[in-house]
Amino acid sequence: MANIMQEAPIRAAIIPVTAFQQNCSLVWCSKTMRGVLVDPGGDLDKLKAAVAQAGVTLEKILLTHGHADHCGQAGMLAKELGLPIEGPHEDDIFWISRLEDDGPRFQMQCEVFTPDRWLKDGDTVTFGEVEMEVIHCPGHTPGHVVFFHRPTNFAFVGDVLFQGSIGRTDFPMGNHQDLLDAITQKLWPLGDGVTFVPGHGATSTFGQERQTNPYVSDAAIARGR
């Protein structure tokens, strides 16, 4: 469990889960110690231990999208702990409805669930005294959302954007142009100083990716990639 923010209105820790080393994030309000798990896809015992170690009281589960490594066991955790699930956008019902079929392909036990609240662009999610903005960023999946905490310039982007790469779009209902548009038209305007946690791999900033990312840097977009 890597702590990535120490003194701020929110604190966050990354807990890699599943064979895909998916970055589940434990995010909490520094003042109230109440928080959320973003994309608790699996390894539930590991996640519960991290929550206990941090001394956080969970309020809800937030989901960026419907792929198994991000949400395959979210419904199981929600039932066990009595937590509501918020997200993703309803356009990902296609993926959530097939979790039990997809699970074995990923060597995972998955369970279909219905979120307590589907999210849409412009919504907000809250925990403790914290509010995060919801940004609908389709392309990797049609219902993918990003969570943005404007006061600290911090975002949880799931599989939209990575350090040096972008999300795959060769899955069913993926769309490469939609993904490029979401990144350049919805994320970049938030500012170069935004630090983000991707669904896999190391954190980065929007400014760094605009300079160096081979798919969505300003130079790559200008070349028409």
UniProtKB/TrEMBL annotation:
Q: Where is the Metallo-beta-lactamase domain?
A: 21-200
**Among its keywords, does the record have Metal-binding?**
yes
Short name of one Pfam family for this protein?
Answer: Lactamase_B
Keyword tags? Hydrolase, Metal-binding, Zinc
Tell me the domain of life: Bacteria
Cofactor(s) essential for the protein: Zn(2+)
- ATP-binding as a keyword? no
How is this protein named in the record? MBL fold metallo-hydrolase
